[in-house]
Write the structure tokens for this entry.
Amino acid sequence: MARKESISKEDLLNAAFKMTKEQGIEEVTARKLASFAGCSTQPIFRNFENMEDCINQVFERALAFFDNYYENYYKGSHVPFVNLGLSYIAFAQEESNLFSFLFTKNVNADYNLYTKLNGRTGAVKTEMSLAKSEGVASPEAIFMKMWMLIHGAACMSLTGDYDLSMAETRIQLEEAYKAFVKR
């Protein structure tokens, strides 16, 4: 009779995601994951081709988590790219390990910054459409200028060098957008 599997693939993914969220992706190794999940490494390699496969599935889960975070983030600005920027910076502050995993590491070559941000929600396309509806001739160029500022602020928060409140950040982003559009 075959032994009953006591830990499922979903259990392992949940454990790997929780480890990534709490400790960072660098800590998710086969042995550490097994210890964290309370099993041997055997179920890991029975459920995943290898650790890269596991990490890629955690990456997909982290992307879905960010999409959900953005969708539920308060959208108080009517200025294009500001709400997305605020949620991105807040995500870096609140979920630093997941932010670092998604946006500062090249884990999955199938995803560039645009595809990660646009996600399943179409967040960037929505913001570009909003800019276009305001008469911006090249929303893509404005997006790149805004995103350099936004990503810089988010990365500064990872190092503890960002001390603006979200209200101050909103004002800065709105002013930057207006300055970029005027040129």
